[in-house]
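Input structure tokens:
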């Protein structure tokens, strides 16, 4: 049975069970709260959101989207259950400001049943401009969230770009394909103890951006197929299925050390 908006317009839903962890700290996500039909979270920008090309990257929205949309969905979990992200799809509508201002994400539950929930949401800039529109599906699994793990220590609060902040490096391969390599650490885990889906989303955006430059990533659909590791090397590799003068379609896989994918994405890219 579809229970979407069963609480009725203006009625509060279950409260958002926000459990901050290392990725939220690293990505400057704060003030996440609300209920299943109106969850709000904010993120402060700065030099850390710069991509490898030196401009603000939509990769920086990965954790904010995963946390705020996931919060609305997980609010509907059965007792002694938590939620895991199955799909996260985002369309990027405008360039991100990198001036230290605050971005706001807002989400609501569009559908829920006994096993899963779907949330939709937006990210807006300080002036109210829509920067991204997103949808997320969460599946409920038995268990409780783990205690949060602090974010990994870096050289400074705003040193370097986004990949530097995460301790990752980008590699351009042959024929325009790209690879990003990350040495995963426990501080990149979600409350379930596996690599945060927003981190994987961010790595995929950066890998695709490197593969198709000067085209820009316009949307990304990530499907999470296995738990992401929080120790050892993680490789994000791209494969371009179409490249034209003004558009491209690029696949990205987040691979564990044994070569098995933990997330698979498809990105649409367009001219600036």
């Amino acid at each position: 049975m579809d229970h979407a908006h069963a609480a009725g317009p203006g009625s509060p839903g279950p409260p958002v069970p926000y459990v901050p962890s290392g990725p939220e700290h690293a990505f400057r996500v704060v003030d996440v709260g609300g209920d299943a039909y109106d969850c709000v979270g904010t993120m402060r920008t700065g030099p850390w959101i710069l991509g490898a090309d030196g401009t603000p990257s939509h990769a920086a929205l990965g954790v904010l989207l995963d946390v705020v949309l996931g919060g609305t969905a997980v609010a509907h979990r059965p007792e002694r259950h938590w939620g895991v992200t199955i799909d996260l799809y985002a369309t990027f509508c405008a360039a991100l400001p990198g001036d230290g201002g605050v971005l706001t994400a807002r989400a609501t539950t569009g559908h829920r049943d006994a096993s899963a929930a779907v949330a939709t949401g937006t990210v807006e800039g300080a002036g109210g401009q829509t920067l991204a529109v997103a949808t997320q599906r969460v599946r409920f699994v038995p268990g409780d969230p783990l205690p949060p793990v602090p974010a990994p220590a870096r050289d400074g609060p705003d040193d370097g770009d986004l990949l530097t902040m995460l301790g990752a490096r980008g590699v351009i391969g042959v024929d325009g394909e790209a690879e990003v390599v990350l040495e995963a650490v426990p501080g990149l885990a979600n409350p379930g103890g596996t690599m945060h889906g927003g981190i994987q989303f961010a790595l995929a955006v950066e890998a695709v951006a490197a593969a198709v430059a000067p085209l820009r990533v316009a949307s990304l659909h990530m499907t999470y197929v296995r738990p992401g590791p929080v120790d050892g090397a993680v490789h994000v590799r791209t494969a371009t299925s179409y490249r034209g003068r003004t558009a491209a379609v690029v696949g990205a896989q987040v691979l564990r050390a044994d070569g098995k994918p933990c997330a698979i994405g498809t990105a649409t890219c367009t001219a600036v």
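The mean pLDDT is 91. The longest strand covers residues 130-142.
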